[in-house]
Protein: LuxR C-terminal-related transcriptional regulator
Organism: Paenibacillus violae
Amino acid sequence: MKFNGNYQRVLVQIKRLCYSGLDDQQLRLEIISKLHPIMQSDLCCFQTVDPATGLITSNVRRGVHNHAVSDVEHIFLEHLYFEDYLPAYRRLMNSRFPVDRLSEATMGNTGQAYRHQMLYKPIGLNDEIRAVMYTGKNMWGTMVLAREKSTTPYSEQDAWLLAKLAPHIGTAFRTALQQQLASIEPTDTMQELDIPGLLIYNPIGYIESYTNAALLWLNELGELHPEWCRIELPVYITQVVSALKKSQSMQTENDFEIIPELARYGRSGRWITIKAYEMSADDDRNRKIGIILGPAVQRDLIKFQTTAYGLTPQENAVVHLVAKGNSSSEISSKLSISPYTVQEHLSNIFDKVGVRSRREVVKKIFLANLFQGEQS
């Protein structure tokens, strides 16, 4: 789809934000502010999710603020997210278009939709557009926008804009997580801790600082020249830096598709990702580039509360499969244990967590206090 001038301008602005090194909270606030002039919404919920389970890990909400919103938010978390939204997000992830519009899905009869009756009618809203933020086959975030009945429904152009942005926002969320992890210094071998490493690249053309973890990953990728920081930068570092600069230039449509990230095969047989992002600075002329090196395997977005409840490794595996919506028979098959053992594990989990149902255990472990301190 060919965007008009305003949409094209916002497309470029938000894509640049995705590689500006912002943390996920500030990034979401900036994106909302860029979208609002062209996609005016009365309510916006912009979430990060755990890619392993699809469960929400944080939320930024803007728009309607009253007691009714708090009430429907609880309904959303306890019921609709599992019954409607998470299955829908998974369908969108498997489709070629990660966005859907309520008005289009109901052929204009939005009031017929269950989520409209439960969520939007009580707070005077009507139409909705929702999107999945992803990288590859992993979901890293979601966005839900809603507006009043007196306004026009969300357009096809709105949907295409979010679809274009979705992989870049997903990449930004993943990078923000690794930025946090990269600040942790290893106290043991990289094979044991798998901590991402961080390089700081000066635009003049050299590496001005790096963490110990980064040096371990660089050595995993091959021999380093004695002057590797200034004279002989590894080619993969040069490539991701160049990709970031090209991506930010936005001179052609192909530039928009460039994501400053690549993967390489390490000495030990592991795949390692190298990605670049522009770091924040008061003076644009002195902006540095951050380069993250880390394992290319899926890792948890957050450490859930299972350790605090004293769950065994097998119980931990069971509760994560429950969170993904697996039945007892599916859990039995995936873990190669009997259905009786699955029920025994579930009984132990319920006792340790102090709940009586699967839904309650997922809510207590994964969603406890989710929205505290995030509203404004």
